[in-house]
Amino acid sequence: MAARTFGMSRRDFLGVLAGATTVGAMPGMVHALGTLAAAPNAFVPHQFPKDFMWGVATAAYQIEGAWNVDGKGQSIWDTFAHTVGKVKGADTGDVACDSYHLYKGDVELAKKLNVKSYRFSIAWPRIQADGTGKSNPKGLDYYKRLADTLLEAKVRPLATLYHWDLPQKLQDAGGWPNREVVGRFTDYCEIAAKALGDRISDWCIFNEPWVFTFLGYDWGAQAPGLRDFDATMKATHVVNLSQGQAFRAIKAVDGKFQVGSAYSMSNCEPATNRAEDKAAADRAHAMANLWFLEPALKGNYPTAFPNGNPYELMDVKSGDMELCKAPLDFIGINYYRRAMVAAIPAGTGDASMGLRNFDAFEGPLTDFAWEVWPDSFYQLVMRITREYSKPVIEITENGCSYLDSPDTKGRVPDQRRIDYTRGYLSALGRAMKDGANVRSYHHWSLLDNFEWAEGYAQRFGLVWVDFRDQRRIIKDSGYWYGKLAASGNLA
Ligand code: NOJ
Fold it and tell me: Residue 269 catalytic?
């Protein structure tokens, strides 16, 4: 197995920290368990507050389809998915759930599940085909119609401005490692905020910046499919600059907007009690969880490299950290699973973080072979609560892939998704009882959809989708979630 980035094999690194499309756990890989609290995953009932926002989450490329309709330009995901060999089964998002045309029915489904918040993303190339210049009215109209439909249904629209679909033209000019993207992205955010701000007041600037920089530019596993550690580190800095500038541009449109980002997070646990492993786990936490948060909230990078962060490589210029700074109104957390971390001697490039990640499989595995360990969610939320002095948190994603399909009566019995969600919400309730300031939870996802490099081979939806004819069936978990969203009572 090739040992690369930060001393992790590609599959370990992707598998554990990503929270996105990855390969599954690796049988036979062991980790020391250390001392575990008694029954760390024990279920504790919880009554959520009345104003808690129950939600569901989706993303443009994963559900919209209509990839070349109404003036939409090509994105890096169109290019990547159209390259045979990149996505399982040669699947593409060309049609996906066709939500571009079926959005009214999809909002109706969300309403049936009693949700108060719908997180979706805006496809940048629908707004500016090439990522620059004048906006495309037809693209904006789609999001206006979507937002109107949500508002009529009394559901809050929570719009993510970047969920991985960079206009291809900007990638041709260098993509996220190119500092010029800061200006392009800021312009786009301003256009979106101005055009949609009468309907949408809650914004996530980025979705999972760690994932789209590392998986896209270092591992080649996602668009644009490059393998270049130096470019990746540059990209992380450009993304941080963009986040700060976009924050200011959106706030300038209306200071009352609520603006944050959605970060992939994993509780990073040392593989043993050895001091080196504990230090490695802290570095993994710095990179996986804080690399795009600390620059915004504190104006500096957390220490993720044992021999010092590679600022020169990242092209950090004087004055940059002031630009990265942005007092986000909320921290969005996408949570799927924990990471076990062990120290290795620090190498160069990918291995310069001096650590190695292991999948944990002490708990049951989902059909994606991701470990179910709700206590790690509690630990992570509490850690962020401590380290950032009780910030406002929105859980922007949490969910699981199980492949249950309709039975002979046309019902989709998916008890394992109910058990998973109940466990993670119990952990969240515990964190709230212990002081975490959490105001929403968005289940990933409303619909089964295009799961990036896994294509349609994973199903995360509360609603089952037949990708041949776009039939939708609410799964048992969907009905269960709907009742919970109505009562707020997790019993
Ligand atoms: C995180 C990503 O934001 C989302 O796009 C993806 O489908 C889920 N994780 C599941 O992997």
Answer: no
CB atoms within 10 A of CB 210: 24
What are the residues whose beta carbons fall under 8 Å from the beta carbon of 443, sequence distance 6 or more? Answer: 55, 56, 57, 397, 398, 399, 421, 462, 481
Ligand 1 atom having least distance to the Cα of 20: 11
Rounded Cα gap, residues 457 and 206, in angstroms: 25
For residue 441, list its beta bridge partners. 54, 395
Using one digit for the tens of pLDDT, what is the confidence trace for 163-196? 999 999 999 999 999 999 999 999 999 999 999 9
CA–CA gap between residue 415 and residue 480 (Å, rounded): 10
Name the residue with the closest Cα to ligand 1, atom 6. 20
pTM, two decimal places: 0.94
Cα–Cα distances (Å) from 103 to 76, 97, 127, 146, 194, in that order, read 23, 9, 18, 7, 23
Distance (Å, whole) CA 128 – CA 140 = 10
Q: Which residues contact 336 (CB under 8 A, 6 or more apart)?
A: 19, 264, 266, 370, 397, 398, 399, 400
| Known active-site residue 322 | no
Q: What rounded mean pLDDT belongs to the chain?
A: 93
Question: Which amino acid type is present at position 333?
Answer: I
> Which tokens go with 331?
């921290």
DSSP assigned state of 453: G
Q: Which one from 64, 269, 294, 397 is the annotated catalytic residue?
A: 397
pLDDT recorded at residue 7:
37
Furthest C-alpha separation in the chain: 65
- Mutate which of 208, 222, 292, 333 to test ligand 1's pocket (most atoms within 8 Å of Cβ)? 208
How big is the CA angle at 245 (ends 244 and 249), to the nearest 5 degrees? 120
Ligand 1 residue neighbourhood (C-beta within 6 Å)? 19-21, 59, 62, 207-208, 334, 397, 444, 451, 460
CA dist., res. 262 & res. 454, Å (int): 22
Give the three-class secondary structure for 464. Answer: strand
Question: Which of 56, 23, 31 minimizes the C-alpha distance to 357?
Answer: 31
Task: Say if residues 59 and 163 touch (Cβ distance below 8 Å).
Answer: yes
Q: Cβ-count burial of 457 within 10 angstroms (0-12 exposed, 13-18 middle, 19+ buried)?
A: middle
- Give residue-wise pLDDT tens across range 216-246: 999 999 999 999 999 999 999 999 999 999 9
Cα–Cα distance between 175 and 224 in angstroms, integer?
Answer: 9
Residue 349 CA to ligand 1 center (angstroms) comes to 27
Residues 57-90 pLDDT 10s: 999 999 999 999 999 999 999 999 999 999 999 9
